[in-house]
Amino acid sequence: MTVPRDVLVVNPNTTASMTDRIGAAARAAAAPTTRVLAVNPSMGPASIEGYYDEALAVPGLLDTIIRHERAARDQGGALAGIVIACFDDVGLDAARCVADAPVVGICEAAMQTAGLLGGSMGVVTTLNRSVPALERLAQRYGVADRCTVRAAEVPVLALEDPASGALDRMRAVIARLLDEDGAECIVLGCAGMADLARSLRQEFGVPVVDGVSAAVTLVEGLATLGLRTSKRGGYAAPLPKAYTGVLAGFAP
């Protein structure tokens, strides 16, 4: 009998309805033998739109990961992998330091996947304030020379409101990325867009990559190969030391 694999998908913001949508997209991409647990922290911003929100989402993200890994161990098991479901790859490096399971961010998964499907990619994100962060991630992931990032000027939580016009703005940006920027494939630059990939793929006739699905599939592959994050160097466990104030509970 095949033993199910447990994959933790963490939405770093605190909006449960968005977590539900992310979880549905993750389960649709996962293998039948993968159990997806989609969760969000109990503390932090309602949405992540810029560097400030990103920084203050990290404590809740790390607390969520630590608690769920501990719960899995207490039950005699272990997580097969962890997905950080925010396109800013919030807290990714820190999560790799504290987690036993491999951790994959949806931006890195989406950009690397798109790089296998076309010579250039266009990223459609939410707000203009997010563009610089995603351009830096494109540099980090080695795709900056073939990646264009454009914003639809849509607040993250507007993606849940059919009356907001968010989808039409996204369509207009995708058309520009294809027609003006020469993108050969499209990357959806927000976890809240995860459920739109299939319909947009059919509409525009090009690969449209959703980072949630890409990350879940990549985590499953790492689990199949028996690979985990190296604990030498930068991703070694945090050193014991005192933390003070409201962060006292995070002391390693």
TrEMBL record:
Coiled coil spans: none
Domain of life: Bacteria
InterPro entries, alphabetized: Asp/Glu/hydantoin_racemase (IPR015942), Hydantoin_racemase-like (IPR052186), Iso_Racemase_Enz_sf (IPR053714)
Pfam families: Asp_Glu_race (PF01177)
GO molecular function: amino-acid racemase activity
Database matches in PANTHER family: PROTEIN DCG1
Family stated for the protein in its record: Belongs to the HyuE racemase family.
Protein name: Aspartate/glutamate racemase family protein
